[in-house]
UniProtKB/TrEMBL annotation:
UniProt-recorded name of the protein: MYT1 factor
Major localization class: nucleus
Cited PANTHER family: MYELIN TRANSCRIPTION FACTOR 1 (PTHR10816:SF10), MYELIN TRANSCRIPTION FACTOR 1-RELATED (PTHR10816)
Keyword Nucleus: yes
UniProt keyword Repressor, yes or no: no
Localization in the cell: Nucleus
Alphabetical keyword list: Coiled coil, Nucleus
Residue ranges of coiled coil: 36-98
Protein species of origin: Glareola pratincola (Collared pratincole)
GO CC terms of this entry: nucleus
GO MF annotations in UniProt: DNA-binding transcription factor activity, RNA polymerase II-specific; RNA polymerase II cis-regulatory region sequence-specific DNA binding
């Protein structure tokens, strides 16, 4: 401890210097305080923006999950449709082969029977021949004369053995 005056004591001199601030130092302190306040406002604004972005991201993620679910459902539906189409194509191919066999059997069975005003049945006139036969059987009342009755009977006998 010093027994002299405070002005001569090195500890007092140091303490006095430490407690005194110049005008520039006081101004710098004020600016630092305002900077802290300004930074505090900026931080609040940034936190608000971060919160809004997080909320927006959450909404976007939910929309993406929903969209992925819809895409997955659509892909499953498309796969089911493709499988159904494949089955239908196979059935159509089988029916086409069956129809082809039946048409060949019909052509062979009716090769010797001539319809009025038509050439003998062949692959080229098959559709027209079948249309004429269909018309004859649908409108049998128009074909009541004996000649037509005999023709219808001979057609019945010719196709009798065809398995449908």
């Amino acid at each position: 401890t010093c027994f002299f005056s405070l002005s001569g004591c090195p500890r007092a001199t140091f303490a006095g210097k430490k407690g005194k601030l110049s005008g520039d130092e006081i101004l710098n302190t004020k600016f630092k305080t305002s900077d802290v306040l300004e930074n505090d406002e900026e931080i609040k604004q940034l936190n608000k923006e971060i919160s809004e972005l997080n909320e927006s991201n959450s909404e976007m993620e939910a929309a993406m999950v929903k969209l992925q679910s819809q895409i997955s459902t659509m892909e499953k539906n498309l796969k089911n449709i493709e499988e159904e189409n494949k089955i239908i194509e196979e059935q159509n191919e089988a029916l086409f082969l069956e129809l082809s066999g039946l048409s060949q059997a019909l052509i062979q069975s009716l090769a010797n029977i001539r319809l009025p005003h038509m050439e003998p049945i062949s692959e080229q006139n098959f559709d027209a021949y079948v249309s004429t036969l269909t018309d004859m059987y649908t409108n049998q009342e128009c074909y009541q004369n004996p000649e037509n009755k005999d023709l219808l009977e001979s057609i019945k006998q010719a196709v009798k053995g065809i398995q449908v």
